[in-house]
Specification:
The chain has 404 residues and is an alpha/beta fold. The chain has 16 helices and 16 strands. The chain has one domain. The N and C termini lie far apart (46 Å).
Length: 404
Amino acid sequence: MSQDCYRSMNDMFNIRRRDFLKIGGVVGAGLVLGTPSAWAQEKEKEEKPPRIKTNIDDALKVPRTAHSLPGPFPGKVVEVHDAGAMADDKPAPDVVKAMFEKGIGKLTGKNLKESFALFFEEGDVVGIKVNPVGPGLISTRLEVVDVIIDWLTASGIRREDIVIWDRFDYMLADAGFTPERYPGIGIEGLQTMDEAAASGESEDDSHWLDEDGNHVSAGKFDMNVYYWADVEGPKDKAYLNQHVFNGKHSYFGKLLTKKLTKIINVPVFKNTGNGISMATKNLGYGAICNTNRLHRPLFFDVCTEVLAFPVIRDKLVLNVTDGLRAQYDGGPMPAAKFAYLFNTLFFATDPFALDMVCQHLMVEKRKSMKVDVNEHPMYTDYLRYAERLELGVADTEKIEHVRL
């Protein structure tokens, strides 16, 4: 293998079919396999099954660079709260901007201009990974992305060298990430999915299958850069529609392998069962295809192992978790009755330390809302796994959690 392989809110916010298709996966004519929250909550068996073999060792053999995880501030997490961040249930741009400046300043000890030089060089192509699931309720806020773009362009990155991206193209549009809203900025989904065909509502496959019977998005994935796991993918059309390939390979998008030189990760603050769906999951399941097969046997470990591959490990320079509005239950799917104003942004170069801090905050919130919480270490083992791989810090005694 080559070196690269490595309920106070409106009902309009209730989960829509396309959100559910993206998150849960489908097989056959609209038959649902289940949801990540269900898999994430499965109780630990008395005897754990043998560990699924993956190609993680290949990723670990590749020498690290100056920008490799956990970045220049391992174990440091900055939390910025401002009660005025959301006004009339909408982000206040000036407040969000001030929060961003405070967060970056406290993380790096430098102002915005000086901080830029810690992460970027001239000629970088920067990808902003958003989470568009649950548009208008729990998706990445446009205003947070706005201040990131302003920082980049003010520091010398051209608009045409910035790409807002996610795995699914239509989800980006649904969440407001459009060329009209962001003129000159690239907007790119790694793949197309025909939701009507995936759910069994349409027998017309022409929107996602080419004349040779291949997925129209197949060419957008790099066949030389992949996460391999000894788990077969289903062979039915609905699965292929959503996942592009079956088999045992999950390929990284060419956007990551061929174009982007740096990544800023902008997840949202939400749960997935007794775990969380934040910084590491936003990339672990957002950067590759053929993922539904991985949910049950490798659900959390994917969030560690995919980030160990150089295509992410050496390019991910900053994580900004959007907690302006958060969700404490029902995740990772949007659920309005569990959403609340949190008015908080989190900053870290170390996504694993960030997720450990947010996991503890999520547990506190769930308990305060009388949710029956399971605090078994199985829900954070993947973060400690990352620490063993020297990708980040998970030991709470070693994490510096700064609150502003």
